[in-house]
Amino acid sequence: MKKNILLFLAVVTCIISTSNAFSQTKAKIDKANAKGNVVFLAVTDGNKKLTEARDMAAKAQKKFPKSEVIVLDRTDKANAALISKYGLAGAQTPIILVIASNGVAAGGSLLDHATPEDLVETIPTKKQAQALLAFSEGKPAFIVLYKKAMKDKAQAVEVCKKASADLGGKAVVVDVDLDDKNEAGFLGLLKPDMKATATNVLVFNSKGQFTGEFKAPVKSAILIATSRKAVKGGCAPGACGSSGCGPK
Question: Is the model's pTM score more than 0.85?
Answer without folding.
Answer: no
